[in-house]
Amino acid sequence: MTTNVAQGLRGPLGTAKKITGWYIAAALLFIFLGMFAIVEPGVASIGVALLVGWLLIFGAVGHIIAAFKGGGAKQVIFQALIAMLYLIGGFYFLGHPLLGVGALTLLLAAIILAEGVLEIISYFRMRKEGASGWVLLNGIVTLLLGGLIWFHWPSSSVWAIGILVGVNLLMTGFTRLMFGLAMRKLIGRVSS
After folding, report:
1. Residue 174 belongs to what domain range?
2. What integer is the mean pLDDT of 61-88?
């Protein structure tokens, strides 16, 4: 039997240290990609449109497979129709990525505008609660951002998706980096 508890933990701690190393490397990759997307939002937007195109095609394959899993003729027809729509959309995004970016930007603006309206409605429902002013501020800023994207469409297609994806990647990267470094510190304390 092991007399020293730390000796028994060397294997798992070594593995945990390797995992956090990969986690930190992935975080740095997210940060790099986020900075690239912010610097080159047009390229990032086209990348998002191409990704959506491929995801739609993979979704179509999933619906084709689901069509033949049983459930009767109505199920087969329904799944086949959805698969055709996914395929058409996927090939559209792959064949015309700039038009796809424009469509995604318009959809994004509508979603952001709807979120702003819902935030303001939430404020009026909870205005007597503490910190509800932040909900109102968030709703106003969200409405302004959605309006900015909507009213400058289609020219906003060049920057909107790329910058928003870039900021998201950057924040995700920093969050993961801080978490990975904290885990490394914890592993260091446990192994001492």
Report:
1. 10-191
2. 86
The first and second tokens of residue 37, run together, are: 């997307």
Task: Please determine, for residue 94, whether its predicted confidence score (pLDDT) is greater than 90.
Answer: yes
For residue 5, being part of any structural domain is answered with no
Residue 176 lies in a domain: yes
Paired tokens of 70:
């049983």
Beta strands, E only, the chain: none
Residue type, 62: G
pTM of the model: 0.67
When divided into structural domains, the chain yields a total of: 1
Q: Tell me which DSSP letter residue 192 carries.
A: -
Q: How far apart are CA 158 and CA 154, in angstroms?
A: 8
Smallest Cα–Cα separation from 52: which of 10, 103, 120, 111? 103
Residue 134, domain member (yes or no): yes
